[in-house]
């Protein structure tokens, strides 16, 4: 039986990995490890289909080390012993241990000394937060890297490769994948490349050729093979982003019913990732300091939604959407940081005042570092007038508070009172 397309298209070298360029791109940490052949054990965590196995496979392929795959939940200590014996006989083995968060103590105790010696390069894969779900003894011997859902552009690149590859992919078929089908395939799978490739393979192999011998894969075929409706993608691919834009603008404009409508489009399309990402952006960009508690509750709702998954995820998200819609709004925090970034990018910064420089090392006093620093807690009300900005921009003002909501009104009063005291 032939392996699924997603399995066959796994990269064999680091340069072929799609996505996760912050880890495997030129000059990035995993790429550097591979180039130097100085591998260390690691844990990769993130959603399904985002490339954890692909990274492990590519690391092994690029370094020419043997590559083995086990599952911490279903494979036994004896399976680990077989891998360990192989490593002793032939040298280093790269072991991908899936579901590493389910590693029991017996297997863990067997693995730990092998990790210490470097006999086995362990690459643990998990969808769970390793800082919570993985034993500290394992964490302390590994580096932890987070992988993220792939972008639509990443998925389109992988799909194009699969359609052209005659040896491992679908290159032996003459396929015409329409633009709207490609757009939907790359967005409706929520950054899960495995789902996209396997859906593509089903579409190609289950669609008869036309009279010219070409397999026509259009939007309706992809919808059927993915079992999702195209509610957030249209023929030119713009509607996916239009729905997200309309969702944010509806919350910004305090229209509860419109926001729930656009959220429902994303939910029905199965696009939970786009919905929760956008909701977090909205909370801090559009509500912000006018209602910080609403932002915190939005984060909690997103966390609950991730754990629940669809369809139950719709319930905490609806709570957050309604509250954000009806909350006072303020973008002052976003504007403030953008103002500060604009100054820095334009080169408007100067020397850090001597009294603010690090003084926790021998010889700092000779350089004048920290000598005139006034410790605010030594003064009444834990405040003292002191310059913090460099001389060049000492009068800069980035934050311009608003009066929307009780919290930011109070912050505004405090901010203006402190500025007056600084300028006296």
From TrEMBL:
The keyword ATP-binding is assigned to this record: yes
Organism of derivation: Lentilactobacillus raoultii
Phylogenetic lineage: Bacteria, Bacillati, Bacillota, Bacilli, Lactobacillales
Occurrences of domain AAA+ ATPase (ranges): 38-150
Family: Belongs to the AAA ATPase family. RarA/MGS1/WRNIP1 subfamily.
Pfam families, alphabetized: AAA (PF00004), AAA_assoc_2 (PF16193), MgsA_C (PF12002)
Classification via CDD domains: AAA, HLD_clamp_RarA
Keyword annotations from UniProtKB, A to Z: ATP-binding, Nucleotide-binding
Domain of life: Bacteria
Keyword check for NADP: no
InterPro entries given in the database record: AAA+_ATPase (IPR003593), AAA_assoc_2 (IPR032423), AAA_ATPase_RarA/MGS1/WRNIP1 (IPR051314), ATPase_AAA_core (IPR003959), DNA_pol3_clamp-load_cplx_C (IPR008921), MgsA_C (IPR021886), P-loop_NTPase (IPR027417)
Protein name (database record): Replication-associated recombination protein A
């Amino acid at each position: 039986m032939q392996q699924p397309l997603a399995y066959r298209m796994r990269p064999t070298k680091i340069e072929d990995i799609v996505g996760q360029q912050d880890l495997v791109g030129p000059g990035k940490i995993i790429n550097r490890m591979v180039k130097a052949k100085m591998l260390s054990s690691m844990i990769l965590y993130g959603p399904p289909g985002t490339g954890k196995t692909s990274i492990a496979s590519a690391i092994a392929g690029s370094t020419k080390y043997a590559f083995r795959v086990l599952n911490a939940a279903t494979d036994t200590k004896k399976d680990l012993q077989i891998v360990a014996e192989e490593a002793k006989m032939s040298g280093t083995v790269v072991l991908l241990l899936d579901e590493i968060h389910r590693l029991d103590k017996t297997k863990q105790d067997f693995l730990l000394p092998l990790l210490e010696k470097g006999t086995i390069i362990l690459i643990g894969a998990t969808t769970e937060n390793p800082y919570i779900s993985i034993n500290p003894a394992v964490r302390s011997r590994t580096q932890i890297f987070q992988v993220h859902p792939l972008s639509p552009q990443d998925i389109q690149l992988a799909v194009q490769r699969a359609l052209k590859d005659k040896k491992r992919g679908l290159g032996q078929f003459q396929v015409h994948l329409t633009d709207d089908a490609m757009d939907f395939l790359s967005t409706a799978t929520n950054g899960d490349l495995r789902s996209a490739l396997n859906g593509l393979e089903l579409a190609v192999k289950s669609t008869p050729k036309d009279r010219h011998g070409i397999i026509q894969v259009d939007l309706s075929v992809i919808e059927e093979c993915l079992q999702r409706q195209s509610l957030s993608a249209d023929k030119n691919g713009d509607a996916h982003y239009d729905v997200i834009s309309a969702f944010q603008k509806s919350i910004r404009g305090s229209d509860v019913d419109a926001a729930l409508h656009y959220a429902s489009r994303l939910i029905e399309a199965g696009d939970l990732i786009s919905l929760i990402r956008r909701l977090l952006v909205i909370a801090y960009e559009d509500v912000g300091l006018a209602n910080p508690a609403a932002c915190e509750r939005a984060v909690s709702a997103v966390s609950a939604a991730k754990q629940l998954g669809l369809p139950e995820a719709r319930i905490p998200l609806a709570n957050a959407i309604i509250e954000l819609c009806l909350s006072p709004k303020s973008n002052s925090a976003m504007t403030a940081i953008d103002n500060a970034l604009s100054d820095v990018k334009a080169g408007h910064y100067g020397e850090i005042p001597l009294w603010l420089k690090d003084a926790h090392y021998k010889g700092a006093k000779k350089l004048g570092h920290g000598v005139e620093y006034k410790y605010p807690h030594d003064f009444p009300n834990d405040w003292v007038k002191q310059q913090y900005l460099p001389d060049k921009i000492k009068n800069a003002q980035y934050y311009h508070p608003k009066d929307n909501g009780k919290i930011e009104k109070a912050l505004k009063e405090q901010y203006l009172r402190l500025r007056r005291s600084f300028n006296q």
